[in-house]
Design brief:
2 copies of one chain form a homodimer. By secondary structure, chain A is mostly helical. Chain A has a domain of 129 residues: Tetracycline Repressor, domain 2 (Orthogonal Bundle), CATH 1.10.357. The first copy, chain A, contains 9 helices and no strands. Chains A and B meet through α1, α6, α7, α8 and α9 of A and α1, α6, α7, α8 and α9 of B. Chain A binds a DNA duplex through α3. Chains A, B: It comes from Paractinoplanes lichenicola.
DNA sequence: CGCATCTTGGAACGATCAGTACAAGATAGT
DNA sequence: ACTATCTTGTACTGATCGTTCCAAGATGCG
């Protein structure tokens, strides 16, 4: 009991993000979220609002944490469009290999479970995918890809990113995921 | 009320399969399953057992329905490994475009939601993925691919298959999905 | 017809769900 | 130190979850 918050909001948000990450939206019950954040129900609802709002804030935190990694990887200079793809997927592979953060990817998991989200959540997921796609396309053009090639490669790289998350979730090894990424960057 | 079953078991199973397909395991409530199959609760449980068993039977029916399509597409003869990949992904694209069967793919969705399944369900999903992978590898070897190339391409084609389902679920157009498939078969 | 067997819909179960209410405790300003 | 304000844990709500139970009705066999 306290008069000032007894937890770090961002750290709690990270905990919530990991729960959504691990379990997906439907299976991320409030009980699991309280356990994952270390907060009581009162603090959870008082700070973040309902489950849907907490999910969206988790998505935002996800973006704040990981988009810079992708941006940096894409910022170049790159010798070829293939190098851009390799750099992008390299970030994904590193993330999947991170022992602090279990396999999978909040965004991808969300994309696969859109029917479980409400309208606001769905819109945010779609918007984030569009953002990543735009970042990729721009970097590919900067690396010398033509308009058409940039669009095509951005789409396919996004696709590979999604497949890496799903395969990781399905138990494929890091070596196998690396192979998939390497072929995509070829 | 009846003494003999008043519904077709296989047709009911198809209905259940579509519900799991559309909603994923967690969001496929018994109410949705009774609506999707047209059965009452008593008939559902009496015929198929609990939700987990119904899911596994839906997976079996899925395999019985769609594996032959993939087998036929893979049966060749094919002029090159790339043709095998194109044939395989063509089946997936056709399935996604089928208006009778909403976008997405039960198996892929299941792979992305493994934590929601019990041990038996998880094992069956993994086994089905392994089966498809084996089918692909064999067909690729038959099309002249080397041992290493066959393994690599089978893995990547499986990856593309998964990504197609996720992207479709995320609202990407049929044209975009075709592009992804075409690049993968290149 | 009479009886056993099976099917069926609906009622009901305990568990869990997301979300709310609130009293008790801790702080900050005065 | 007093008070207003905020935070926190817990008890609680109504809804929904998966599941079980059962009486009523339909069938097949003698």
């Amino acid at each position: 009991m306290a008069g000032r918050k007894q937890f770090d909001v961002d750290e709690a948000l990270r905990g919530a993000m990991l729960v959504f990450w691990r379990w997906g939206y439907s299976e991320a019950s409030i009980d699991r979220l309280t356990e994952g954040t270390g907060l009581g129900r009162g603090s959870l609802y008082g700070t973040f609002g309902d489950k849907s709002a907490l999910f969206r804030k988790s998505l935002e935190r996800y973006a704040q944490t990981y988009h810079p990694l992708y941006e940096q990887a894409l910022s170049g200079p790159h010798s070829s469009p293939g190098a851009v793809v390799a750099a992008y997927l390299g970030v994904t592979l590193n993330r999947i290999a991170d022992p602090d953060v279990p396999d999978g990817c909040l965004l991808t998991m969300s994309a696969a479970q859109l029917p479980a989200l409400d309208a606001e959540g769905q819109a945010m997921v779609r918007a984030m995918i569009a953002t990543l796609r735009g970042m990729l396309e721009q970097a590919l053009r900067a690396a010398g890809a033509g308009e058409r090639e940039a669009a095509e490669l951005a789409l396919c790289t996004l696709a590979t990113n999604k497949s890496l998350a799903v395969l990781s979730r399905a138990g494929f090894s890091g070596e196998e995921l690396s192979t998939v990424a390497a072929v995509a960057a070829r």
